[in-house]
User: What shape does this take?
Amino acid sequence: QQQVKQSPQSLIVQKGGIPIINCAYENTAFDYFPWYQQFPGKGPALLIAIRPDVSEKKEGRFTISFNKSAKQFSLHIMDSQPGDSATYFCAASMAGNTPLVFGKGTRLSVIA
Amino acid sequence: GAGVSQTPSNKVTEKGKYVELRCDPISGHTALYWYRQSLGQGPEFLIYFQGTGAADDSGLPNDRFFAVRPEGSVSTLKIQRTERGDSAVYLCASSLNSHTGELFFGEGSRLTVL
Assistant: This one.
């Protein structure tokens, strides 16, 4: 059973566009929702994270929108650049030292 | 370097052989994790250490997989009687303390079982 469902599987946008990646979860006990970015041949790196007490968080060009009632959260990348081309993973975990569970990933290509 | 270091970066072995994968976490990080990533998939949790002890090994797929962290720093993931289905990138991550902080991942060890 997949605990975090991510979509789309792949995404192509023009430079300057705003790609949006979505994640849905079932476990209402999740209380930490990070996004990780992974380049080919590298390990994932934390991009931005949110907790359910806020509905939105911005860091630079990256924004997480969180909808607790719908059990969904999404990543928006403003003014996307070719250097943003990577695979993005949403994840979730619960308090009390439970492991992060990851979505299957979205491969983003930003074309000039 | 200051990041998580994993060796070997690539390992090719034959079905039935034994392999060890090593992880050297960031100095001072007490929590260490092993994940497995198959092609086109997200990282899949295997085991988590807090200090020297395995706090959660619920992700280990079967008893052919074992991991140790004897001195609370370097960890070794051990796979016995490897199978072709074990082929994947094995990722190690460390964090300052618990799961709800940032995980710092290494570049992974790519295991290919022929």
Notes: DSSP finds no helices and eleven strands in chain B. Chain B touches chain A through 26 residues (CB under 8 Å).
